[in-house]
Amino acid sequence: MLTDFAGIENAYIIIAHDDSEYLKEIQAKIMEREGIVAIAFDRKPAVHSFVPGYLSMYSYVLPYMSPSYSSAILIKCKNAHTVIADLLEQISDVVSKIRKEGMVCVIPEHCIQKLNELDQKLLHPAIPFEELIHEQGIFLDCEFQDKWAMFEYLSEKAMELGWIQNKEQFLHDIHKRERIQSTGIGNQIAFPHTMSQTAIKPFLFILVCKSDLEFEAIDNQPVRIVLLLGLPKNNFSYIPTISKITKAFAHEENIKTLLGCKDKNDVIQFFNEG
Q1: 265 vs 99: which has the higher pLDDT
Q2: Closest CA to 163 of 190, 134, 139
């Protein structure tokens, strides 16, 4: 049995049991080891005993498995094969003594990574940043009375371009997000964004303002660059886009370069090279 785990280094281990005091002892012992952390589940039942088939090859389930367990701990550890050997011995022993059911499930870290990748690709696919850059969405030398007037203008443009189905709904969604907290992220940049049911496709507006625009930014300074991101609701992840933008404007010289762009092609080239 233990030879099945010989190649596992980093892993997550779930131990489920009806004896919470026993699990506390296990957790205390586990935390004594270097490079290992463990947390207890506080919701009951903590674990149901269904294990997906594609993970079952990595699982060791003790006899007389119960449909659910009232308590469980989750362990993240290095050198998992040595930890597993110790745990199986201890758990088998306690089950025979107190005649309680228990379960151990071992999930190698690479499986968790694959699940996260699958989540990003299928549930929240990332948008290639280059696909968001369109000439129609770039505006230079802009001037607005305030950010609310700018939102009105961009909502109208999104409607004209066929990127949204309903201007009023999108405007409502972007206002709602902005009132939670200003999207002025500092260094003359604002990044308003929203997931909206009315958005047909992911889109990005890039505005370089001719003069300062008050945005209630986190550094209390006005804004000159605005990037407005719209996404269909529950279909895409905007985290990679935020990372791309954050990286692009990590250096002050990049901000100066964008402010100095003479035409839309300069803007497109700036982001493609970023």
Answers
A1: 265
A2: 134
Encoding tokens for residue 102? 């228990």
* Cα torsion through 60, 64, 65, 67, rounded to 10: 170
Domain 2-123 has CATH 3.30.70: yes
Where along the chain do its domains lie? Answer: 2-123, 129-273
Joined together, the tokens standing for residue 144 give: 């607005």
The tokens for 31 are: 């935390």
In this predicted model, what pLDDT tens digit does every residue of 16-43 receive, in sequence order?
A: 777 778 777 777 776 666 566 666 766 6
Q: Which residue has the tokens 């901000």?
A: 255
Domain 129-273: CATH class, spelled out: alpha beta
What are 256's two structure tokens? 């100066």
**Degrees to nearest 5, angle at CA 206 with 200 and 211:** 140
**The one-letter amino acid at 175:** H
